[in-house]
Amino acid sequence: MYKIIEKRTLAPGVHFMRVDAPLVARSAMPGQFIILRVLEEGERIPLTIADYDRTEGWVTIIFQEVGHTTGLLAELGIGDHILDFAGPLGRASELDRYSRVLCIGGGVGTAPLYPQIKHMHEAGTEVDVILGARSRDYILLADEIRRCCSRLYIATDDGSLGHKGFVTDLLKELVSGGERYDHVIAIGPLVMMKAVSALTREFMIPTTVSMNPIMVDGTGMCGGCRVTVGGKTRYACVDGPDFDGHLVDFDEAMRRQQMYRQEEKESHICRLPGMGGQVR
Amino acid sequence: MSVTYAKTPMRVQDPAVRRNNFDEVALGYTLDEAMAEAGRCLQCKKPMCVAGCPVNVQIPAFIKALTKGEFESAYNIINETNNLPSICGRVCPQEEQCEKQCILSKKGEGIAIGRLERFVGDGFLDNEEPANRALPSNGQKVAVVGSGPAGLTAAADLAKFGYEVTVFEAFHEPGGVLIYGIPEFRLPKALVKKEISKLKALGVRFLTNVIIGKTLTVDDLLEDGYSAVFIGSGAGLPRFLDIPGENLNGVYSANEYLTRINLMKAYDFPHSHTPVKHGRKVAVIGGGNVAMDAARCALRLGAEEVHIIYRRSMEEMPARAEEVKHAREEGIIFDILTNPIEILGQDGWVKGLRCVKMELGEPDESGRRKPVEIKGSEFDTDFDMVIIAIGTSPNPLITASTPDLKTTRFGGIMVDEATGATSKEGVYAGGDAVTGAATVIQAMGAGKRAALAIHRKLSEKACINFAVNLNAAK
Ligand SMILES: Cc1cc2nc3c(=O)[nH]c(=O)nc-3n(C[C@H](O)[C@H](O)[C@H](O)COP(=O)(O)OP(=O)(O)OC[C@H]3O[C@@H](n4cnc5c(N)ncnc54)[C@H](O)[C@@H]3O)c2cc1C
Ligand code: FES
Q1: A22 shares its domain with A116
Q2: Quick one: A57 and A154 in the same domain?
Q3: Burial of residue A67, with CB atoms counted within 10 A of its CB: 0-12 exposed, 13-18 middle, 19 or more buried
Q4: A interface toward B at CB cutoff 8 Å?
Q5: Domain range holding A195?
Q6: Among A70, A121, B43, B49, whose Cα sits 20 to 30 Å from the Cα of B253?
Q7: Which of A33, A64, A89 is the last residue of a domain?
Q8: Residue A144 belongs to domain with CATH number
Q9: E-assigned strands of B301-406?
Q10: Which residues pair with A100 in a beta bridge?
């Protein structure tokens, strides 16, 4: 059992939790994730480690209520326990070889991006950041990030904060305007990472994306998390989650993410009160 | 005494009923049936069955005790070499091991040793290990990585020798393949849980959600004060066919399919929150126990038609004979001498399978006749789900994070077979992590040998330390 020691709501339906997990904190690195389970009948879902402290023994996660499990997780509060919390999983991001980096975060994708920005900034890398979201309410961690980057640009779909439009508009503007980056790191929805990767391919800027497919074990034993990268099948949980954005088959990844859409719909109906389904 | 050449049959659930439920298929012997079967044993002077058992259970001795109604004595005889009789009685390939060697099998059917082992084991399932079996703690800690049959056996024996044993398990539940792989209808999970709670009663500590190689390394364990480490991490890495279409929606590795169903209880969706696809027409590729289990699960989840696609013939099929028989009775279709070459898709989902026909040629390294493709025999069949069960290999998480642990060509951990000692001081290994996918009983045997070797080594060390201290004191 893993105790929740802090909880905050960052945006409507987006929550931050600090969890007591000394063994995970002991070896966590930026870019890695955990797999958690909320209750006995619960599903195992992966969430990226947003921050950690080895001496105090905690790990933070940031998640959006999108499905059943994240909904149940959101109902927990300070002092409650998460049933299972396993990690750190996946490879740590390789962050130490760049001199000037552009980081692009979309929606909750900003959460896993933050520790990477912090790590690079502390290591002396110059980091510019573009954050994008539906509206200003969904722009996460802007203050924290502003403190550890050179320049922060913001785009919202509705124009309620920063540029009205997509992160790719800003990316295009920056690079066409003469900004030079030796690497781009993009984390966000698949469509965003696909669009960013298509642009940076044109600009010939190497790009890393972070894949978050459906997972079960997170240790390489099921193969459910497979993604095609450069024509080869890779497991996101052990070979990733970071991959070369110019080589990832995003269309396949989007399709695989839809695998249980039907079941999700059915279970939602079954779990509605009065439909005979169990709600815990 | 007249000799009976036929096994006492065991009652099973009616195939037409059981193909719709996950309850256990084979129902076990009643006391009368067990007595009748035990009475067939000829009590050979030189019992071949014992030699056929990978851990040399004293078979005639336990059967004799059984015929005399001395159940506890029968149980203790088995328990000397086999800690998990209820499990082994259900899942061992007896027809390849003890029962094959039985003298009666020359003229008829050998003794149903597995069924008798199950009968004896089940009678003692609710007995906690008598507390006096555990010696008082000797103050030394040993770490066991993985909680499959290898890890459980090593942990039990080490605890009985007096060590403080901690088992580190990557999943949220201990048991290894016994929990996540082998389905409920063949090995009820309640039974595995009882065996695990017996270990807890012996003082074994289970730490789940710890992935060695990620959460902690083997070196961390040694630095944290564990005097020895036993690695029983299994062979959990699924192999795929490397043919076009494998990443289509509706294609599963058997590992994923079975883990969703058994460990995550997807058959109980949406009460249990993990979903699994329900195929209508399902192809399972492979001919081992894993393939049979996946096929029979698909049937129980409502598939109209399930095919086992296997590239050799029925004779070469590695699955337990009883599972093949049960699968057949349930209506699984066997497409033998058939090899898939492409998974066909439509709109991103599985739509069918393109296969070629095979024929058997010359024997290969494994001694089995090698299947060769019949030119121009391609044909397509409609399927909406494909499950790949062509084998697994050891997971490299541990070996990759422990550079001084030598591995074999197949990624197995290299050990001295008699002791399980690896290339790294204080580190032992056994089970599928060493051999690649094998059997429950072999994994248990390896766990037992390693526990004894660890005990010998650590007691030797303790003796030397004692002598050194004694000298220093003089
Ligand atoms: C579906 C299926 C059906 C089978 N049917 C039969 C049968 O009928 N009869 C038979 O004899 N054999 C059968 N087998 C084979 C048998 O189950 C295995 O040979 C046996 O379980 C191997 O035991 P093990 O202890 O070596 O490994 P496993 O049972 O695989 O256990 C390994 C454990 O280690 C854990 N682990 C792995 N890596 C790590 C890590 N890095 N850190 C911490 N923990 C880790 C795993 O999660 C797992 O719990 C079957 C196998 C499968 C998959
Ligand atoms: S999640 Fe199972 S292999 Fe990656």
Answers
A1: no
A2: no
A3: middle
A4: 23-24, 26-27, 37, 41-44, 68-69, 83-89, 216-217, 219-224, 226, 228, 233, 238, 252, 255-256, 258-260, 263-264, 266-267, 270-271, 277-278
A5: 100-257
A6: A70
A7: A89
A8: 3.40.50.80
A9: 305-309, 333-335, 338-346, 349-363, 369-373, 379-382, 385-388, 392-393
A10: A126
Average pLDDT, stretch A253-271?
83
Residues in Cβ contact with B224 at an 8 Å cutoff, skipping those fewer than 6 apart = B216
End-to-end CA distance of chain B: 70
In the prediction, which pLDDT does A262 show?
Answer: 87
A221 and A152 in a common domain: yes
Q: Are residues A39 and A107 in the same domain?
A: no
Tally C-beta pairs within 8 A across A and B.
114
Q: Comparing C-alpha atoms, which of B282, B334, B342 is closest to residue B311?
A: B334
Pocket test for ligand 2, best of A37, A211, A221 (most atoms within 8 A of CB): A221
User: A161 and A248, same structural domain?
Assistant: yes
Contact B54 CB / ligand 1 (< 6 Å)? no
Chain A residues touching residue B264 (CB < 8 angstroms): 43-44, 216
Whether A173 is covered by a domain: the verdict is: yes
- The pLDDT tens digits of the residues spanning B122-159 come to 998 877 655 445 567 888 999 999 999 999 999 999 99
For chain A, the domain total comes to: 2
Does ligand 2 lie within 6 Å of residue A224's CB atom?
yes
Q: Per the CB < 8 Å rule, is A216 touching B247?
A: no
What CA–CA distance (Å, rounded) separates A167 from B4?
A: 81
What ipTM does the predicted assembly reach?
0.92
Query: Which residue matches tokens 């996660």?
Result: A61
Provide φ and ψ at A263, rounded to 5°.
-60, -40
pLDDT averaged over 10-residue windows placed end to end, chain B, 474 residues: 83 95 95 96 94 94 96 94 93 93 92 96 78 70 98 95 97 97 96 93 95 97 97 96 96 98 93 94 97 98 97 93 95 97 97 97 85 96 98 94 94 96 97 96 96 94 79 75
Which segments of B43-145 does DSSP mark as H helices, in order?
Answer: 48-52, 59-67, 71-81, 85-91, 98-101, 113-123
Average of per-residue pLDDT across A87-99: 90
**B189 alpha carbon to ligand 1 midpoint, in Å?**
14
Please give the angle made by the CA atoms of B402, A49 and A101, to the nearest 5 degrees. 95
Indicate whether A76 and A215 sit together in one domain. no
The pLDDT value recorded for residue A268 is 67
Residue at which a domain ends, from A57, A89, A121: A89
- Residue A33 confidence (pLDDT): 95
Residue A178 lies in a domain: yes
Q: For residue A275, is it within any domain?
A: no
Beta-ladder partners of B307: B283, B333
- The residues near A43 (Cβ < 8 Å, ≥ 6 apart) are A37, A68, A69, B264, B273, B274
Please name which ligand lies nearest the alpha carbon of A219: 2
- Tell how far the Cα of A223 is from the centroid of ligand 2, in angstroms: 5
Tokens read off for B276: 């699994």
Q: Is B325 helix (H, G, I), strand (E, B) or coil?
A: helix
Q: Are B308 and B333 in contact (CB under 8 A)?
A: yes
Q: Is A153 within the bounds of a domain?
A: yes
Tokens 């010998």 map to which residue?
A: B456
Q: How many Cβ atoms are within 10 Å of B279's Cβ, its own excluded?
A: 25
Tell me the shortest Cα–Cα distance from B273 to chain A, in angstroms: 5
CB contact under 8 A, A219 and B271: no
A196 shares a domain with A162: yes
Which residues sit opposite A61 in a β-bridge?
A17, A49
Residue-by-residue DSSP string for B326-352: HHHHHT-EEE-SEEEEEEEEETTEEEE
Selection from B357, B363, B367 nearest residue B336 by Cα? B357
Q: Does one domain contain both A171 and A206?
A: yes
User: Which CATH number do you get for residue A49?
Assistant: 2.40.30.10
The residues, ordered by sequence, that sit 6+ positions from B61 with a Cβ below 8 Å of its Cβ are B77
